[in-house]
Amino acid sequence: MANSPDALRPIIVRTVKQLRGHTGQWRRAGQTIGLVPTMGALHDGHISLAQIAKDNADRLIVSIFVNSKQFSPHEDFDRYPREQDADVAKLAAVQADLVFLPSADEMYGEGFATTIHVDDLTRDLCAATRPRLFDGVTTIVTKLLLQTTPDIAVFGEKDYQQLLVIRRLVRDLDIAVTILSGPTKREPDGLAISSRNQYLTPEQRGVAAQLNRILRDTADEIAQGSGIAAQVALAKSKLTGIGFDGMDYLEVRDADTLEPIDRLERPARILGAVWLGTTRLIDNREILPSKSGGDPLV
Ligand code: AMP
Is the overall model pTM greater than 0.85, yes or no? Predict the structure, then answer.
């Protein structure tokens, strides 16, 4: 018997109390819970993480919260896309059980005074130009993990530095959750899918796909033995020549520690952040030493 569309709609809750009512019921029934935290404007990347959560837990919760604390004053908090109805429809299609849609007051009540800070991994890369990003992310993710107490939570490799920071946070604070990651979903031309891609003009959209192509080609060259410094310099000049309007960084780092490396002896990652007009795009690719043969560590 086919379910009616209504039967497939996720429960929508806006308060922690309501959320805990549902998670408590599921736990008492012996069910496991998977969480996918998002800022909404959901796309195939988010949905792929939701699918991973579904495959690894009995119940799927997706949170949608545009987290003011991770934006600096000059960033795009105000214009960040908010598409609640379309988001809920997409989550109904993937049969999410519950959508957590808290208000800013619910998450940051009057007098809110706590910040969760992860050191080391947040010293540079995205942190260099987005000073509030990681404290904002680790504070909200800690809250979401405490609010939902999931068995698993899923994050995207698209935000690779963020993924490592969250793994560190969970380890350091002994939070009883398994962090899973999902590969970056891409448009047919290779552009990493992002809620921010909708800011791009058609002309910028054409240039945007070159970021992935250049990262991929550079990663391939380095994997085949070319020197890291020379390849990074070449990639930077290609990015500038091709029409990007600026670059926050383009770096090859150790895949686990994000320490700078000058030789490929262990799994590494090439990471880039570039600008097209007022839109900032990030992407990354893995680089495996040719003899390692093993799986990357994330
Ligand atoms: P956001 O809504 O941008 O905060 O992202 C929520 C989650 O989706 C994060 O774990 C991101 O890393 C992940 N994500 C964003 N874009 C993609 C993508 N193209 N492929 C896979 N995961 C993604």
Answer: yes
